[in-house]
Write a structure and sequence with these properties.
The protein is an alpha/beta fold. The chain is about 55% helix and about 15% strand. The protein has 28 helices and 24 strands. The strands form five sheets. Strands 16, 17, 18, 19, 20, 21, 22, 23 and 24 form a nine-stranded mixed beta sheet that branches. The protein has a six-stranded antiparallel beta sheet with strand order 5-4-3-8-7-6. A five-stranded mixed beta sheet has the order 10-11-9-14-15, sandwiched between helices. Helix 1 runs antiparallel to helix 6 and helix 20 packs parallel to helix 21. The longest helix has about 40 residues. It is rod-shaped, with a radius of gyration of 52 Å. The N and C termini lie far apart (about 110 Å). The structure holds ligand C2E and calcium ion (2 copies). One calcium ion binds next to strand 21.
C-alpha cells in the first residue's frame, strides 16, 4: 500500500513538473513577444487580489452537494490587461500561494496547485495575446478574447485536475470537467465581465471604482445573509424529513441507519456514529461509512463524556493528529436514560467548524432520534416476543423439539408433498417409573436424550416432535410400503433403545411404537397420528416393540379417551369390582387362597377387560387409586375367608408403576391393619417384565416389601427377558409359570420342559411354584405329578364375585380338608401391624391323592 502511494506521489510530482515546464515553455516561447494592452502596472499589486480571490469562495449549498464559486478569474482578467505574461504568472503563483498557505495547504498538493496556476496563467497570457491581436481590451473583440481565454484556461486546468485525480485514485472522475463546462462557464462569464468592467472604469472614470466596491460589499453582505438563511432552511428541512422518515421505521437497525444518514447530511459532516448504550444492541458502535452502516469495535471517546451524562458537546480542532478536527456529540435521551450517543465528525473545510447553531440543530435531531429509537426498541421487543410466543406455541420447552401442533403442520405439509409417508409414534418404556424413582431431573435427561437421538436420525426439521409426556413422533418420508416403514421404524427403535449412562447410573432406554402408513391407513395428518397412537397402545398392551395400525384389531384412540374419562369416574365413585379366582394344591385339591382380579363393568361400554383398562390406568396415574381399592377390597374379603380356611392367602396384582410409588409399603401396611390380616396372608404378584424393566429399582422395592413380611410372587414367569438365574437374586417366595406355557404343556414338549424346569428350579431355590391357566383335568394331574405347589385356572374355577367365592370355598373346605389341617399355627392368628417372618413355602411333596372333580 505504502509502495503504491509512493508510486502515485512520484507520478503526481512528475506531472506537476511537466506543468511547470509547459509554463516555462509558453513564457519563453510563444508569449515571449506578447505585451499586455495596458502594461505598466506593478505586478505585485495583483498579489493580494489573487490571495483574496483564493480565500473568498462563495458556496451555494444544495443538500450535501455544495457548489463553490471562485473569483479567481477577476484578477486573471485584470492581469491579462495590465501585466506582461511573466508578471501575471508571478502574481498568480505568489498570490495563490499565500491563499493556499493560509488554508494550510502544503507538500505535493501545494506544489501541484502552484504548478497548475503557473501553467494556467502562462497559457492564458499566450492565448489572450493571440486572440486579442492588438485590439482594444474593452472592444467587443477584446471582450470575446478575454472570455475565450478564460473558458479555455478553465478547461485546461480542469483537465489537469482530472489527470491528477486519476493519478491519485486511479479512477477517471468526469465530475471536474463536467463542472468546468457547466457552472464553470457561468462563473467565467460573470468573472470576465466584472474584470472587464474594472478595466473600462479604470480607463474612463476611475472614481466609479468606489461604486463598484460598494456593490461588491453589498452583495457580500447579502450573500452572507443568504447563506445563513439557506443553511437554516436546509436544516429545518432535513429535520422535518428526518422526523417523517424515522417515524415510518420500526426496527432499531433501520432507525439507527436513518439517524446516521440524516445527522451526517444535516450537519454536512464527513462521518456519523452511533454508540448504543442500552437495550439488546448495547455496546454497539454503528458507523456510517460512505453509504453503508457498519458495526465497528470501540466505545465512546473521552471527549464525549458530557454526552454520556446527557449533555450535548462540541469539540474544537483537535490538538492530537489522530482525533477528528472537530465534532459534535449528543445524547439520545428518554426519561433521563441515555440510550445512545450520536456523533458527527469533521466537515469540508469551506463550511468551517461546527458552530453553536450546529450544536442546537444536532441536539434537536438527537431528541427526535431518541424518541424514535425508544419506540423502535419497544416494537422490536414486541416483535421478538411475538416470535418467541410463536416458537413457544410450536415447540416443547424441555427438548426444544417441535410439539404436537408443529408436528401436525409438518406432517400435513409432508403429505401434500409426498403421499408415501409413515407416522411413527413412540413411547418410552418405564419412563414414568424412572421419573418417579430417580427424580424428574433424570426423567428430563432421558427425554432430552431421546429427542437428541431421534433428531440425529431425522433429516427434515419438524419430522421429529414430542407429543407430550414420554411420547414422540417421527415422520418417515418416502416409504415404499408398510413393511419398509416397519423396517425403518425398527431402526429408529434400536437407536432410541441404547442404554443411557448418567453419572454412573445406567438407565436402560426402551421404546415401543405404533406405526401408521399413508395412504393405506389414511391421508390426513390428524388421522394418521391418531392411528399410529392407537397402534402404540396395542403394542404396549401386547408388550411388543412395534405394531402397525390394523383396522381389525385397533380401537381408535377416541375410545381410549372416553374410556379413560369413565375409568376415572368409576374409580372415584368406587364402581370397580374385584373377582376372585381360586388357587388349589394340585395334589390334594385343597383350597389355598385366591387371586384378586379387578373387574369393570361400565353402563355404556359393558365389561371392559383389565388387559384394556389397566394399561390406561398405568398411563394416566389412575393405577395408584385402583391398586388401593383392589387391595382394600381383597384384604377385607380375605379376612372373612380366613374364618372359613385359616391358612387362606390372598394374591393381589401390582403393576410396574405401583413399584415406583414410594407410598406403596405404607399403603399396604395400612390396608393390612384395616383388615386385621397378618402380613403373610397377602401375596403381591409382580410381573417379570415389571421387574426386568428396571431391575435395580425393582430390587430395592422388592426388598422393602419382603422386609414387611408380605409374600412376593413373580407373575407371568417365562415371558420376560430374564434368565432363570436371576431368580436367586430376587427376594421372592413364589413364581407363577405363565399360562401360555401351562396351556401348551399338555401337548407341546417344549412347553412341558419349561414348566417342569421352572418347577424344579423354583424348588431348588426354595420357592413355591404356581401354575396358572389350568384349563383341563389332565393338566392338573400332570402338575401334581411334576410337583407343582399351587394351581389356578378355568378348570378349577373362573374368577368369580366374592359371594360366589364364599360358596366355592365353603364347599371346597368341606370336600377337600387340608392335610395336615393347620401346618403352621402362627398363620392362623391374625397379627396386623406386627412384622411377620416370611411364610415357608407350602409342601412340595407330591401327594398322589385322587384328582379333584370340579
Ligand atoms: P394375570 O395376573 O396373569 O391374571 C390372570 C389372568 O388370566 C386373568 O385375566 C384370568 O382371568 C386369566 N385366567 C385365569 N385362569 C385362566 C385359564 O385357565 N385360562 C385362561 N386363558 N386365562 C385364565 P384377567 O382377569 O383378564 O386379567 C388380566 C390381567 O390384568 C392380569 O393378568 C393382570 O396382569 C391384570 N390385572 C387384573 N387385575 C388387576 C389388578 O387388580 N391390578 C393390577 N395391577 N393388574 C390386574
Ligand atoms: Ca396375576
Ligand atoms: Ca399371570
Amino acid at each position: 500500500m505504502a509502495l503504491l502511494d509512493r508510486h502515485r506521489s512520484s507520478a503526481i510530482g512528475a506531472f506537476s513538473a511537466v506543468l511547470v515546464a509547459l509554463a516555462v515553455f509558453l513564457l519563453t516561447g510563444p508569449s515571449h513577444q506578447i505585451d499586455a494592452p495596458r502594461a505598466g502596472l506593478a505586478w505585485w499589486l495583483l498579489i493580494p487580489v489573487f490571495t483574496a480571490a483564493e480565500l473568498v469562495v462563495v458556496h451555494v449549498q444544495a443538500r450535501r452537494e455544495s457548489l463553490s464559486v471562485s473569483f479567481a478569474e477577476v484578477p486573471l482578467v485584470l492581469g491579462l490587461v495590465y501585466l506582461n505574461p511573466l508578471g501575471l504568472v508571478g502574481a498568480r503563483v505568489l498570490g495563490s500561494a499565500l491563499g493556499l498557505l493560509r488554508r494550510r495547504q502544503s507538500g505535493l498538493k501545494l506544489f501541484f496547485n502552484l504548478s497548475m496556476f503557473a501553467f494556467e496563467a502562462a497559457l492564458a497570457a499566450t492565448l489572450y495575446g493571440l486572440a486579442l491581436g492588438g485590439a482594444d481590451p474593452s472592444s467587443p473583440r477584446g471582450l470575446l478574447a478575454a472570455l475565450a481565454t478564460v473558458v479555455v484556461t478553465d478547461l485546461a486546468s480542469a483537465a489537469a485536475l482530472t489527470t491528477v485525480i486519476w493519478l491519485k485514485v486511479g479512477e477517471y472522475d468526469e465530475g471536474v470537467l463536467g463542472e468546468a463546462v457547466t457552472s464553470g462557464l457561468v462563473a467565467a462569464l460573470t468573472n470576465t465581465s466584472v474584470g472587464l468592467l474594472v478595466v473600462v472604469l479604470v480607463d474612463t472614470r476611475p472614481v466609479a471604482l468606489t461604486l463598484l466596491l460598494a456593490v461588491v460589499v453589498t452583495v457580500a453582505f447579502a450573500y452572507r445573509g443568504y447563506a445563513a438563511l439557506s443553511r437554516g432552511h436546509a436544516r429545518l428541512e432535513s429535520l422535518y424529513r428526518f422526523t417523517r422518515r424515522v417515524q415510518r421505521e420500526v426496527s432499531v437497525d433501520a432507525v439507527a441507519e436513518i439517524v446516521l444518514r440524516q445527522a451526517r447530511d444535516a450537519l454536512s459532516s464527513e462521518t456519523a456514529e452511533l454508540f448504543m448504550l442500552t437495550g439488546e444492541h448495547a455496546a454497539r458502535r454503528l458507523c456510517l461509512i460512505d453509504e453503508d452502516v457498519q458495526s465497528r469495535p470501540g466505545g465512546p471517546a473521552r471527549w464525549m463524556a458530557p454526552a454520556l451524562a446527557g449533555q450535548a458537546v462540541r469539540r474544537h480542532e483537535s490538538t492530537d493528529a489522530s482525533g477528528p478536527r472537530d465534532a459534535l456529540a449528543a445524547p439520545l435521551e428518554v426519561d433521563g436514560t441515555v440510550l445512545a450517543i450520536l456523533v458527527v465528525e469533521d466537515r469540508p473545510h469551506h463550511l468551517g467548524p461546527f458552530g453553536e447553531d450546529d450544536l442546537r440543530l444536532f441536539e434537536s435531531l438527537a431528541n427526535h432520534a431518541a424518541v424514535s429509537l425508544q419506540n423502535s426498541r419497544l416494537v422490536d421487543r414486541l416483535r421478538k416476543e411475538a416470535e418467541t410466543q410463536e416458537h413457544v406455541s410450536l415447540h416443547d420447552a424441555l427438548t426444544g423439539l417441535p410439539n404436537r401442533r408443529h408436528a401436525l403442520r409438518a406432517l400435513t405439509a409432508e403429505l401434500t408433498a409426498s403421499a408415501n409417508t409413515a407416522v411413527l409414534v413412540l413411547d418410552l418404556d418405564g419412563f414414568t417409573e424412572v421419573n418417579e424413582a430417580l427424580g424428574y431431573a433424570t426423567g428430563d435427561l432421558m427425554l432430552r436424550e431421546t429427542g437428541r437421538r431421534l433428531t440425529a436420525l431425522a433429516t427434515v426439521p419438524g419430522h421429529v416432535a414430542r407429543l407430550g409426556n414420554d411420547e414422540f413422533v417421527v415422520v418417515l418420508r418416502d416409504v415404499v410400503d408398510a413393511d419398509d416403514a416397519a423396517r425403518r421404524a425398527q431402526d429408529v427403535l434400536a437407536a432410541v433403545g441404547a442404554p443411557f449412562t448418567r453419572s454412573e447410573l445406567n438407565i436402560d432406554m426402551h421404546a415401543c411404537a405404533g406405526l401408521a402408513v399413508a395412504p393405506t391407513h389414511g391421508v390426513d395428518a390428524a388421522m394418521l397420528m391418531q392411528r399410529a397412537d392407537a397402534a402404540l397402545y396395542a403394542a404396549k398392551r401386547e408388550r411388543v416393540l412395534l405394531r402397525v395400525w390394523d383396522p381389525r384389531t385397533e380401537g381408535d384412540s377416541g375410545r381410549r379417551l372416553t374410556l379413560l374419562g369413565h375409568l376415572r369416574e368409576s374409580i372415584e365413585s368406587g364402581q370397580l369390582e374385584v373377582h376372585y379366582q381360586p388357587k388349589i394344591k394340585p395334589g390334594t385339591g385343597e383350597a389355598v387362597g385366591a387371586e384378586a382380579l379387578v373387574r369393570w363393568a361400565h353402563p355404556d361400554h359393558g365389561r371392559v377387560g383389565p388387559d384394556e383398562f389397566i394399561p390406561l390406568a398405568e398411563h394416566s396415574g389412575l393405577i395408584h387409586p385402583l391398586t388401593d381399592q383392589v387391595l382394600d377390597a381383597a384384604l377385607a374379603q380375605a379376612a372373612l375367608w380366613r374364618a372359613i380356611l385359616p391358612t387362606f392367602t390372598i394374591a393381589v396384582n401390582l403393576s410396574a408403576r405401583s413399584l415406583t410409588n414410594p407410598d406403596l409399603p405404607r399403603q399396604i401396611l395400612t390396608a393390612l391393619s384395616r383388615a386385621r390380616l397378618p402380613r403373610h396372608a397377602l401375596t403381591l404378584e409382580i410381573t417379570e417384565t415389571a421387574i426386568m424393566t428396571d431391575l435395580d429399582r425393582a430390587l430395592t422395592v422388592l426388598h422393602e416389601l419382603n422386609a414387611l413380611g408380605v409374600g412376593l410372587s413373580i407373575d407371568d414367569f417365562g415371558t420376560g427377558l430374564s434368565s432363570l438365574a436371576y431368580l436367586k437374586t430376587l427376594p421372592v417366595n413364589e413364581v407363577k409359570v405363565d399360562k401360555s406355557f401351562v396351556l401348551g404343556a399338555a401337548t407341546q414338549s417344549a412347553d412341558e420342559a419349561i414348566v417342569r424346569a421352572t418347577i424344579e428350579l423354583g424348588h431348588t431355590l426354595g420357592l413355591r411354584v404356581v401354575a396358572e391357566g389350568v384349563e383341563e383335568a389332565e393338566m392338573l394331574g400332570l402338575l401334581a405329578a411334576w410337583g407343582c405347589d399351587v394351581a389356578q385356572g378355568y378348570f378349577i374355577s373362573r374368577p368369580i364375585p366374592p359371594e360366589a367365592f364364599t360358596a366355592w370355598l365353603t364347599e371346597r373346605v368341606r370336600t377337600f380338608p387340608s392335610v395336615p389341617p393347620v401346618r403352621d399355627p402362627i398363620q392362623s392368628i391374625p397379627h396386623a401391624g406386627v412384622p411377620q417372618p416370611q411364610p415357608e413355602p407350602t409342601a412340595r411333596t407330591v401327594a398322589r391323592t385322587p384328582l379333584p372333580a370340579d
